[in-house]
Amino acid sequence: MFLPERRVDPPGIYEKPFKEMYDYIVVGAGSAGSVVATRLSEDYATSVLLLEAGISDLEPDDVTQIPYLWPSLIGSEKDWGYLSVQQKYSHFAYKNERAYIPQGKVLGGSSSINAQVFVRGSRNNYDQWEHEGAVGWGYDDVLPFFKKLENATDTTYRDSTLRGLHGPIVIKEITGSILQSFHQTAAMEIGFPTVDCNSDDPIGRLLVSINGVGGF
Question: What residue stretches are annotated with the Glucose-methanol-choline oxidoreductase N-terminal domain (predicted)?
């Protein structure tokens, strides 16, 4: 078995076949699997095989390299194209009340087919998991790892104790159209503050983060 050769690769780089044995085999090259494989491979004495069911997104002209074209990836060969179970109280405008759930079938997983939006989830979600028995998965437990992977120095919330400044993923704020100022004014008039979408209480008009440079 050989990896498929691409025109951008140096000649002969894929002539070496897969090894018969590896120290680690990581199944799934999505956001989590890619990071796990990267961290394991930092030990040069360790051999790591990363498997992905989908295709590569490393071609220079690949659509995944152009952020504003991400909607064209929904329903493509790079999307698993899952459907939810039939909903009882919502999705009445959808066929059989089932929601379409795009999930990346490509190197990088769903992080390669979304809009690069960087949202951790609410503190309540993690604390609820811990309350239900997932010890070590509370918000205060996972926060140091979120901070470790991001670099938010070029944002208005860079001084927040909830943000990291030295990680490999550069975070930027989405800059919208002139309508953005009207949205902010309207939110303030009805009592909603402007908050970081990754604050521990993200209720209000959100400052949305994007992965500005690229991931692992």
Answer: 104-127
Per-residue pLDDT tens, the chain, 216 aa: give them. Answer: 455 556 656 566 566 677 888 999 999 999 889 889 988 999 989 999 999 998 888 776 788 888 788 899 999 999 999 999 999 999 999 999 999 999 999 988 998 898 877 788 889 999 999 999 999 999 999 999 999 988 988 888 888 899 999 988 888 877 667 777 787 788 888 888 878 888 887 777 766 666 654 332
Whose tokens are 């140096």? That residue is 10
pTM above the 0.85 mark? no
Q: Where do the domains of the chain lie? A: 1-115, 116-216
- Between CA 28 and CA 51 the distance in angstroms is 6
List the CATH code of the domain at 116-216. 1.10.1220.110
Closest CA to 55 of 111, 115, 109: 109
